[in-house]
Amino acid sequence: MALDSDLSIDVSKFRPEAASDGIMKFNELLMDRMKSEPKWFRIGAAKYREMKSKGETAIPAAALLDRGEPFSIPSREQGRDIPCRVMRPQTPRAVFMHIHGGGFVFSSETAQDQLLAGLADDGGVVVVSVGYRLAPENPFPKGPEDCYDVAEWLIDNAKGKFGVDLQFVGGESAGSYLSMVTYLHLAKSRPAFHLSGLVLSYGTFDLSFLPSVHNFKKRDTLIIDKEIMDHTIEAFCPDMSLEQRREPSVSPFYQDLHGLKLPPAIFICGTEDCLLDDTVMMAAKWQMCGGKAIVKIFPGAPHGFTLFPPDKCPEAKQGLDANCLFVRTMMR
Fold first, then answer.
1. N or C, which end of the chain is more exposed by having fewer CB within 10 Å?
2. How many CB atoms are located within 10 Å of the residue 317 CB?
3. CA 295 from centroid of its chain's CA atoms
4. Predicted confidence (pLDDT) at residue 275 exceeds the cutoff of 80
5. At residue 73, what are phi and psi to the nearest 5 degrees?
6. % of the chain surpassing 70 pLDDT
């Protein structure tokens, strides 16, 4: 019997020397910028949201596009609607439900118009971005429930509203988590419905933290670190013990995926991200349970790298191109 591994990984992507000089310089600039910023949990979520909206944080400020359409979907709570934003391509072939990131505490459906317009045009999808409720004002399970409600509404109404069906769910960071738990909810609530794909960019799937969260050490904060993760997850899951955070309904990494008809999924992450283990280990589990998982690792890229302008972070375009290629390839 040959001693060939039954699990393969391109280890060259994880070596420090694989990172380009450009991305390492970019990371140094980010750390310098973040060193001068107050931590959100020291000034409060509301104040930090205001700073983000003015472009006073490391993550670029949102630029609204005229083509973005405000839209709302009924909540399970009577008399309340969930704000959404729609980006349409010239020739739509499917609906993509997008869930923004921001540590469950920041951002909104209006914060990524340029990214979503590119996804709409390059992927040929109507993008519906969800303005779910944020922590700490609305902790778990409020935000996830908004995503469940939007997904179920799109299953029932997308064809009539947009002329095409819901086929994809995806997002970045906390949005990847919410995309995963939304799929798991649909697997139970709508077992006859099948997605064409999940698009999961640098997500967190274990809210009790996998080892890379503990082991990620930089001279200064590089977008997120364990201290920031501690405070954002406490805001999202207040007063939960580690054991409670490991409940499958809270952390999808602990879900039993056997027997589910798993859709194809693309997982992307940079090596300079404390959530790297979440991507690698969730993707491995996905494959072990019969799902198709495409994993794209970007040497040196930090958390949130696809949100930066490609002229400043070349890996951003590479990540977005990978996601769009996945959408075009998996579309029915």
1. N
2. 15
3. 14
4. yes
5. -130, 140
6. 100
Question: Which residue from 329, 301, 332, 328 is spatially nearest to 317, judged by alpha carbons?
Answer: 301
165 and 95 in contact (C-beta within 8 Å)?
Answer: yes
CA distance 83 to 179: 17
pLDDT at 323 (0 to 100): 98
CA-CA-CA-CA dihedral for 166, 169, 175, 178, to nearest 10: 90
| 1, pLDDT greater than 90 | no
- Give backbone dihedrals phi and psi of 208, rounded to 5 degrees, phi first: -95, -5
What is the Cα–Cα distance from 283 to 176, expressed in whole angstroms? 13
Look up residue 47 and give its amino acid.
K
Lookup: tokens for 331: 């579309």
> What is d(CA 289, CA 1) in angstroms, rounded to the nearest whole number?
25
pLDDT tens readout for residues 288-308 = 999 999 999 999 999 999 999
Structure token pair of residue 45: 């979520």
The mean per-residue pLDDT over the stretch 57-73 comes to 92
Phi, psi of 151, deg, nearest 5: -60, -45
> What number of residues does the chain have?
332
- 3-state SS string over the chain? CCCCCCCCCCHHHHCHHHCCHHHHHHHHHHHHHHHCCCCHHHHCHHHHHHHHHCCCCCCCCCCCCCCCEEEEEECCCCCCEEEEEEECCCCCCEEEEEECCCCCCCCCCCCCHHHHHHHHHHHCEEEEEECCCCCCCCCCCHHHHHHHHHHHHHHHHHHHHHCCCEEEEEEECHHHHHHHHHHHHHHHHCCCCCCCEEEEECCCCCCCCCHHHHHCCCCCCCCCCHHHHHHHHHHHCCCCCHHHHCCCCCCHHHCCCCCCCCCCEEEEEEEECCCHHHHHHHHHHHHHCCCCEEEEEEEEEECCHHHCCCCCCHHHHHHHHHHHHHHHHHCC
